[in-house]
Amino acid sequence: MYPDLSYFLHDLFGTQPDNWASIFKMYGLFLVLAILAASQIFYWELRRKASEKLFQPTTIEKTEGKKPERQDYIYNAFFGFLLGFKGVYAAQHFEQLQRNADEVLLSTAGSWWGGIVGAVAFAGLKAWEAHGLRNTMPEVRSVEIYPHDRIGQITLIAAISGVVGAKIFYVFEDFSSFLEHPAQTVFSGSGLTIYGGLIGGFLAVSWYLRRHRIPLVPVLDAVAPALIIAYGIGRLGCHFSGDGDWGIVAAAQPAWWFLPDWLWSYDYPHNILREGIPIEGCQNRYCMHLAEAVYPTPLYEITMAFAIGGILWFARKRFHIAGMVFFLYLALNGLERFWIEKIRVNSKYDLGFMQATQAELIATLLFVIGVSGMVWLWRKRDKK
Known about the structure:
Blueprint: H1 5-13, H2 26-51, E1 58-64, H3 70-92, H4 94-99, H5 101-105, H6 112-132, E2 139-145, H7 151-173, H8 175-180, H9 182-187, H10 194-211, H11 216-241, E3 277-278, E4 288-289, H12 297-315, H13 324-340, E5 348-350, E6 355-357, H14 358-383
Antiparallel strand pairs: 1-2, 3-4, 5-6
């Protein structure tokens, strides 16, 4: 459908596909939207819990009017160098950027003069800031910081560690591809496993919370609706870009089916993987569609993710046992993913007595943990 923004604009306004807008990949755009949505929902819930006195503020010393130090100039110059080094190179190789942005942005190639100009410019901006503060005396004051005030840091840590975790799990899931093309597999923007992202993000954020003495359980309850809504938005990117997260070949449509045909089976035209057979008359960069229509499993997951999000949003003010919302999220998430794997294309492990995908194994574990956790919390409350 829409491997990048240019194809969406083509359908909307009739503009030519594969133009300048093709550098904006559809999956990446939805991934950014998913992170922004999760951050906002998470912020609302953390702030609400702070108003209920579930978090205690941390007092920190904040200095206003402080002049930039040497490391500030170094950081600015380094950032400016990277921006100029890759930005100018990307502009010089725009056609290559359109074809494969990862190949351009994640390579070691770049423009040295662009990097030098960028470094000087950004260091100069910091010097201009220092010039404006030349007659200002630094003022130190105490500020109370709540967890929702740290939402930017938490989101950044979760995003980076989540991508790393998702990539690591993908490597294990498709180890043969990694052995054939290790660099391409690791540095490619595609190939991300959701459960690897959740586990990676959980470990990193848990470390951050512990470091700042923020209680973990209320934060887990707060983040549960955000995670599942972000998952649904991310799956929109999977569907619209045609990134391969589709289902098996669909069975014949039954007579009782009353919904649109594309909800039963879909051939993913212009898919970003360029899989299938050529589209007749198409002369653009993405001109393939699947030879046999498959189940559009991302659409099913989107529906279930938003439904689970609604359940958790309803339960968040009605469950008064700390941790119950998060365990409910684990159970529903595991249940949803286990059953969708039955009609999804994925690699399976041979366990001797059965075959199962990586996602099925993790989903089963999450469901068991979720249900066991809810039962344990309920019995613990009864004992009290």
